[in-house]
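User: quick one
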Amino acid sequence: MNDLSDLPLLSDEDEGRLEFSRLPFGGLFGNTVLIRVIREITADPYREFRPRELEVLTSSSAPRIKNALELLAAQGLLENISCDSQRPVFRVNLSSKRLMALTLLAYAVTDDRDGTDCMDDAVRHYYVDKLSEAGQGREIGIFAGEERGVRIWMSDLAAEKLSRSLVEILEDASRKGEVKV
Amino acid sequence: MPPDEKIEKRKAYEKEKPCLPDPEEKGARFLGWIKKRGFYATFEECEAYCSSIEIDLKEFARNMGRDHIIMGRTSSGIVAVKIIDRKWASKWARYYEYDLPHHSHRMKL
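Assistant: Done. Structure below.
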């Protein structure tokens, strides 16, 4: 940044927290290339991971990143989705319970440092979303006549979002006189 | 826990309304990312991440305001990004489903 001198000076406490945050999971497992890659995939598992980008993000060399990615793929946490063996592209296995556990661990590290409740909130969310009776989901059918139609299984949360979207679409169509609601 | 109580708790959670400003989808994604790193990260790390999701970090921080996110420097000259309002950040990350792994986002991308 060019305007560095204009930025406020962080407190000693903030500096300590920043240093702590720079270590993956607060340094609990050291600071190896593997754990740095694991931190990256935990922090945002929706990206497609390419070795070159990870080299920049984790300040690591190409061979070490390659080893880490191969190990995580062998563990089932990553999947290589590229057809080109020279240019691998990895996708995170979002179904992995280890990924969920690592996410909770990331929050627990902050909680232990600052006395907050990030992990508790996340566990509550996970319970409500995945484990509770109300979060188990249901099958929804959309039919046009007796034979044509689709059946979709979705969680109650997704069903509620879908219903809100449908209401908006139908209200809009009703205003335009395209449907009768 | 009685069934009624369980349902009531779930509804309360679902109706959680985050406070403005709305960081929008990409902003919430950044908030989810930095939250998992302890609400602090160096500007360099944030820039590397933000470029991968195509968000202008400086503009985002400016739009959200200093009550929510700030940039500062350490005594050794490292520029850092700090989330000031963690509740705000957490609620929006949850609202856009970037707090826990979800399958839904993969379809959006």
